[in-house]
Amino acid sequence: MTAHPPPTPPFRDPQLPFAKRIDDLLSRLTPQEKVSFLHQFVPAVERLGIAAFRTGQEALHGVAWMGPATVFPQAVGLAATWDTDLVRRVGEAVSKEVRAMRARDDRVGLNVWSPTVNLLRHPLWGRNEEGYSEDPKLTSAVATAYTLGLRGDHPTYWRTAPVLKHWLAHNNETGRDVTSSSVRPRVLHEYDLRAFRETVQAGGVAGVMPAYNLVNGRPNHVSPYLREHLRTWTGDELLVCSDAGAPSNLVDSEHYFDTHEEATAAALTAGVDSFTDHGSDGGTITARVTGALEQGLLTEADVDTAVRRQLSVRFRLGEFDPHLDPHAGTGAFDTPAHRALAREAAERAVVLLRNDGVLPLADGTRIAVVGLLADECKLDWYSGTLMHRSTPLEGLYERFGAERVGFAEGVDRVRLRTSAGTFLKVPDAPGAAAGARGAEGALDPALLTGRTDLPPLTTDPVGTEFALADWGEGVLTLRAPDGCYLSVAEDGRLRASADQPGGWIVQETFRLEPHGKGHLLLHVGTGRHVCVAADGVQVAEADPEVFELVVVERGEDAVSRAAAGADVVVVVAGNDPHINGRETEDRTTLRLPAHQERLLAAARAANPRTVLALVSAYPYAFEPGPLSAALWTAHGGQAAGAALARVLAGDVSPAGRLPQTWYADDADLPDLLDYDVIGARQTYLYFEGDPLFPFGHGLSYTSFSYDGLALRVEGGSVHVTFTVANTGATTADEVAQLYARAVEPSVVRPRRELLGHRRVRLAPGERTELSFEVPLSAFAFWDVAHDRWRLESGPYDLLVGASSADVRLRGTVTLDGEPSGPREVLDGGLAAVAFDEQSGCEIVDRTKTSGDAVTPGAGGTGELLYRACDFRSGTTGVTVTVAGQGTVEVTPDGGAPVVLTLGTPTAGPYDYVRVEAAFTADGVRDLRIGLRGPLRLAHVGFSG
C-alpha cells in the first residue's frame, strides 16, 4: 500500500484569499496558543510549522538598535526637505536594510514601529526630533511617503509592515503616563486625528501604537477612538501594538483599573492586539489574559479578533509564502546608493534662515569652524550604529582644504582638584585611546553605557585636563584628552570610556553643585555624588568629594583666537540628542544653553562675519540680527558634515523649509499641557504674534518669481494653477506652498492652512507651471453644533508663496456650502463637550468605555459657551446630567442665570444623576454654563 503525504492545509494554499487562510489557521490553533499570540514575542507553533514572530522593529530614520546601519537625518529633518519623493526613497532604503539584516539575524523584525506622526504642537516637547511637523497636512504627506517606501509597491506582499506612533494627542514627556490631553472635538477632528487618518487611508500602514498618555481622561490604550475612528478608515485589519509597559501602567501608575485582568480585558476589547510588556517574557500577559477569560471579562472571540489582525500582517509579509515573497533575498545593506541617498537627504534638509550675502563661501575663504558640535556627528535614541560619519569640521576640511580651515571646539579646559590637593586622573590603559571607534568610524554601542574593562579614574599631583561642555540646565559632560567621555558603569566607577553620551539612562552627564569653597560633582544618571576612594573614583551615597574647578582655558578665549584670524567664522551650535530634551524629558526653554551663547558672542565680537549653523532636534530662540547668516539642520545622520559643507560652499543651494514655527520667546508658548490649539492660538494655524521664523520659511542662493494664478471651482474641487520661475543665476530647488483661509468664518478658523506643496528644481531662467486639485472637503470644519464636518458657504482666499508668511499670489473663490443653522437644543439637548469656547475647563471621560464630560480645571471653576442655541417658542425647564459635587449655572444670553446644585456627592465619578430646575428662554440665543466645584457635566437638556 502506497503512503500518501498529508494534504496541504488551506492556510498554506497561496491560491486562497488571505481571509480564508487566516480562518483556517485560527481554527487549528488551541485556545492557549492563541492567547500566547497576544504578547509582543509570539512563540513558535512547531506542530503547525509556524515560526516565532515579534512585533516591533524601530526604524525611524534607519534601522535602530540592531548594530551598524545607514543613518539618515532625523525625522524632523526629513520633513524639513518638504520632499515626499525623497522621503519615500529613504523609506524604501530603510526597508531593504531591514530585510537584509533580517536575513542574517532573526531578532530583526519586519513589523516596523515607524513613523511618528504626532504633531509638533509644542517645540519644547522632548521628542520633537521624532515627529515631522506642526501641520497635519505636511505630516501626513511625509508620513505617507515614508510608509509607502517601507511597505514597497507589490500589491500583495509587503517589504515591511509600518506601525504609526503614537495614537493620540501625545506631545509631552512630563508625566507622560499619567497626564491627560484635553482635546475638544474640533481639535480632535481637524488636528490630531487628521494626520493619522490621511496617512492610514493612503494604504501603506499596517497598524498604530497607542501613546502612554490619557486623552480626555481616558488612557489611549482603552480609547474608544480606536473603534470609532481608526477602524472605520480602512476596515478592521489594522494591527494595534501597545507601547512598552503601557498595559501595566493602566493599573500601576494610572490606577485606572483595580486589577491587571480587568485592564488587559479592557485594552483588548478596545482594540489593542499585541501587548508590549515585560520584555520578551510573555508569561505575565498570558496569565492576565487567561485570568480575564476565566472571570468572564473576555471571550474567545475577543482573542480571535486580535490574533486575526496579527496574522493578517504576517501573511502580508510573505511569511507563509516564502517561495512567492518578492522581497525575499532582495535586501540591500550599506550600498553606494544608500550612502548617496543619506547625503542627498542631509543636503536637502538644510534650511537657510537668514543671509546678508556672506553665503555661499567662495573658494579660498579662510574659515574658522567653532562650537560644541563643530566636530560631532551626534546619534539619538532611535539611531542605528554609524558605519560612516562626517562632522562639519571634516566636511569643511574635505571641501576647502585643511589649510584653509581653523578649529576651536569652545569647551572649557579644566582640572578637578580634590580636597587633598591632588587632581582627578585618567590612568593610562593600553588600547584605550582607540576609544569607542572601530573601522571606518563605526561606533560600538556597548560603549555608550560605560565599560568595566578599563581602570577607573584615580588621583595624582598633576591629573588630567578635561574638556567641559555645559549643555544647559547645569548639565555638563567631561571628556578626556583621548576623546572618551567620563561615564559610570554598573560597578559605580568613573572611567573615560564612552564615545558619546547615550543610552536610555545617560551615564555621561554631571552637575557641579556649589558647596563651601568648591563644588560637589553629581552624577545625573545615578543621582549620586562622585567620591574618591582607595580603589578608584566612584559614585556613592556618602562622603562626596569637594572639588575645586581649575579652569585652564575658557572656551570663549579659544573661539576668539580662531575667529579673529579667519575671513568667516562658522559657529556650529545646537543640542546633544541625549541631553535636555529627549524621550522622557521635555525642554524648559527655547534659548540656547548659556555656554553656547557665550561662544556665539565671542565669535561675533572677534569677527563680524559670523555664520550660525544650528544642528538640533528642535527650534531655538536667538537674536538673528547681528549674524551674517544662520542655517538650521536636524542631526543629519552619517553624511551631516559633508552636506553642511556643500551647502555653505554653494555646491548645493539650500531649499529646506521649516516644518514648524520658530517662536521668538518662551512667552509666546502656551503651557506644555494645553492641547487646545484653537483656544490657545497655537501653531502657525492660529498664532497671532510675530514668530522668529514662520512655518515653511527657508531662503535660497537664487530668487524665484510667481505669477499666473488661476482658480476655478469644478467637479467638487478647487483647481489652482500658477507658474514659478528661477530669476537668479543658480540652479536650485523652490518649495511652492499653497494655503487657504476662510474670509468670513462663523467660528475661529486658521489664519492660513496648508493645502499642498511642491518641491521643484529649476535652472536659471527656467519656468514651470504647477497645478493643485483641492477637494472641497479640505475647506470644511468640524461643526460642534451638529457633530459633523460642514463646508461653510462664503469666500475663501487662496494664498501661494514661499512660506506661510511670504505670500506672492492671492486669489479668492466663493464656495457653496451648507448654511450655518442654529443648534436644535430642544430635541436632543447639548452634549457638554460640544462647546464653542471654554475657559478653565478640562474634558474628561464620561465613563471608562465611552463618552466625554467637562469638569472645572485646577481652579475649581470653569465657563462654557454654546452659540446660537434655538429655544424656539420657549422652554420651561433645564436638566443637567452630572456627577461629583458642586453647582451648574445656566445663563441664556439676555436672561437670568439658573443655578442647579448637586448637594450630595455621587458615589463615584461615573455615577451620574439628573438635576432639574425651572428655566425660561426663547428664540436663538447664546448659552453660558458655569461649573463650580469638583463635578463632571455630561449633558444639558431642555423641556419646552
CATH homologous superfamily name of the domain at 29-316? Glycoside hydrolase, family 3, N-terminal domain
N-to-C CA distance: 88 Å
**Residues in β-strands, percent:** 25-35%
The CATH topology of the domain at 29-316 turns out to be TIM Barrel
The average pLDDT value, as a whole number, equals 95
What is the molecular shape? globular
Percentage of helical residues? 10-25%
Highest-level CATH class of the domain at 29-316 = Alpha Beta
CATH architecture designation of the domain at 29-316:
Alpha-Beta Barrel
Low-confidence stretches: 432-448
Please describe the biggest sheet, giving its number of strands, its sense, and whether it closes into a barrel.
Answer: 8 strands, antiparallel
Cα-based radius of gyration, to the nearest Å: 30 Å
Q: Please give the count of helices.
A: 18
Structural class designation? alpha+beta
Let me know the number of strands.
48
InterPro entries: Actin-crosslinking (IPR008999), BXL (IPR044993), CBM6 (IPR005084), Cellulose-bd_IV (IPR006584), Fn3-like (IPR026891), Galactose-bd-like_sf (IPR008979), GH (IPR017853), Glyco_hydro_3_C (IPR002772)
Pfam families: CBM_6, Fn3-like, Glyco_hydro_3, Glyco_hydro_3_C
Keywords: Hydrolase, Signal
Protein name: Exo-alpha-(1->6)-L-arabinopyranosidase
